[in-house]
Write a structure and sequence with these properties.
The structure is a single chain. By secondary structure, the chain is α/β, with parallel strands linked by helices. It has a domain of about 250 residues: Rossmann fold, CATH 3.40.50. The protein has 13 helices and 13 strands. Strands 3-2-1-4-5-6-11 form a seven-stranded parallel beta sheet, with helices on both faces. The chain has a two-stranded parallel sheet with strand order 7-10. α3 packs across α9, α4 crosses α6 and α6 packs parallel to α7.
Amino acid sequence: MGWDWNELFAAPSDGADGKDRRNGTPKNGKLHERAWQQLSSRRTRRRRRNLITGGAGFIGSHLADELVERGEEVFVIDNLSTGSIENIEHLKAKPNFHYVIDTIANEPLMAELVDRCDVIYHLAATVGVELIVRQPVKTIQTNIYGTEVVLRLAARKRKRVILASTSEIYGKNHRLPFREEDVMVFGPTTKHRWAYACTKAIDEFLALAYHHEYGLPVTILRFFNTVGPRQVGTYGMVVPRFVRAALRGEPLRIFGDGLQTRCFSYVGDIVKAAVKVAGSPHTVGEVYNVGSDEEISIAELAERVVALCGSDSPIVHVPYEEAYGDGFEDMRRRVPDLSKIRQAIGYKPAHSLNDILKLIIAYESQTVPV
């Protein structure tokens, strides 16, 4: 629904009397248990308020769905650079949903939004290999400056933050499966391919620095190839590209030899994990892989999509240089170790890859002109 700005910003941030009730935090950045209980107690007296940056994007809109369905208050900010108003169109009439089209670089607006909310899910970022290679300046500016704004404002009131990171963090590390404490191995700065991974690494360093120095209750989630309905293939996302091509009877274009492997996770599983992490005090200050560990090669993925669509689309191979320019580098395998998040919140993916593909095919069949 649209916002009544006077009503939205007139109310005090923490209590009916307008007092700033900050919670004591020890030097190691961990919230005292009593402080956390006080926070939780206040939130149970009213609906929890959540801010989603990038909330009109693919993952952000599904997160908004989940939180609205739970009866919580949801505020979304998105500049629609890669998101779409269509992703949240169905939520506009909900009384507990609010949105604004603007950038997170608008600090006065962000300060008000952060002040009003209990939990901030920071998803806004430049994403997609194709976009990153084509617009490295935008990638660096958006991902670093935007995150610093969110963290700095959240730290003033110690608001709970869930920071979306990425499996790209592991770079060219060949040790598998990837564990949260593994080293990062990036390519040279002359390869724009690594700009995104480096910016997200800086985001993580910033988040953990704010946690240790200022007591910001933040948790970092490294997403592994999240897919599902509403995802677009415009910026290189492989599953929607394949599904749409197969439904149209067009060639499925594989970049490289197709032997590179990935683990695709369902967006619904991911957002449920994020919400559960946000409500778990013992996850503060931690980094978690979240996704699926069901590994598949891109060539096999293409064959499976064609079969499930009942399509006769051909599968063709395109050199990386043709797709992304000279000197492009890619990771051969990307597999997460999920034991840490499993132990923390009991996380287990509820959807197999076949389940996910069938859901995406059903969705795309209703939206893709053939």
